[in-house]
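Predict the assembly for these two chains.
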Amino acid sequence: MIELKNVTKYFLTNQGKRYILKDVTLTLPDGNIGILGRNGAGKSTLMRMLGRIEFPTHGKITSAHSFSWPLGLGGGFVGSMTGRQNVKFVCNVYGIPYEKRREIVQSVYDFSELGDYFDMPIKTYSSGMRGKLGFGLSLAFDFDYMLIDETLSVGDVNFRQKAKHALRKKIESCHTLLVSHDMKTLQELCQAGLLVHNGQLHFFEDINDAIKQYRRINQTQG
Amino acid sequence: METKASTLTLRHPLKIFFAVVRALFLRELNTRFSQGRLGLFWTFFQPFFQIALFVLLHALILQGEELSTYDYTVFMASGFIAFNLFRGILSSSIGAFDANKGIFVYKQVKPIDTVITRVLLETFMTGVIIIIFLLIGFFLRYDNMHPENFVMVTLSFFWLIVFSTGIGLLVAVGSTFFPSIGKTVSILSFILLFTSGVFYSLENVPPEAQTLLLYNPVLHFMEMIHGFYIPELTTRYVDYNYMLLWTVIPLFLALWLYVRLEKRIISA
């Protein structure tokens, strides 16, 4: 369960306050929730707030669950270090003992299909390769919630299938909050949906209702 | 993908802190050591060359007319290494938050951890340099290398580290919001090299200049270290209260600002 209490989030821009959330009070039940919204609606900001690296301007988000770091296309790695070093670093941050760490490094190496690139600096990676590495790494940890922001759409078709498959297996024992613009992926992996629109969150118990509503918004405004 | 981190349980905040600092330390050490052999050699021997150069210049300028009674090489070495520690902490603090922005996605990593790590790293590097120096002195049977008061020199270095950390954290927070602070500090630390009593003892300076130079807190630290290290020199110019003020006020100001601004630094 994730509880949002009077959550307001805005960014200060030259044009004044730009609201992402405006006084939202909502309780999300446990489950796999797909997050929808137009570009710039605040999907990624919501993910970052759940991952506790962005904070509401007012209000509180509480949950007893553990969340992964938001798995996005960008950050999370140090460019000058190799893939292997980055994996070791994250394990150290999470306090993983040495033996376990070795297993994780091996499993990430196997999963990410980076080959020799695994021992090359991250700055030589394409964004797809970064996504693969980050996704593989996150699978090695037992979070209650996986925060996945578009990473499933990286890489080639084969990898996307593999990632989807791995995630489906993973969420047998945990939940996911998934941002995606691919409706098929959302339908496959999520039961419920959350629509971010005009500073409000709309929760739908059925992902298909969320998608319908999302399409309606796109038609009236796009 | 059967591998699972079964250790992902609730950890005590202190435990998380130590794990993060350890991870960051190993990471920073790794980047420094992977610069290749030449880079590594230079890191440790740069101070030796610099000190040798200064000692040579000193001898050339004075042309054998020694004004001081103390061993200038030891004077130069102890002061320069201490000053470099201060300057190293200061300059590595400037970019600490910005350089680590990418890893703040892991909520365990707090910005302050990166500054603490860099302080530890600078201390570690300085420690290695000091040991190399003492070993060289030992094998060359250079007796002047023995500090007059070993315990007080060590304590002085620790105080210097705490002092530098306070200023460093202040600069780290400040330069995140005002990049010009970082540039100003870089220039200032260069000026400080000449006004902190690294090249000269305060007793060899005219009295009018003394009063002016004594406003510089770093000079007090250099005088303290020199006074305890070199038998011919004393700590009579050192104002401990003044140093304490310069240690406590920046440290608390920095911590206060940091606590207020931590979230903004993370999501900046």
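Chain A has a mean pLDDT of 90. Strands of chain A lie at 2-13, 16-28, 33-37, 58-63, 145-149, 175-179, 192-197, 200-204.
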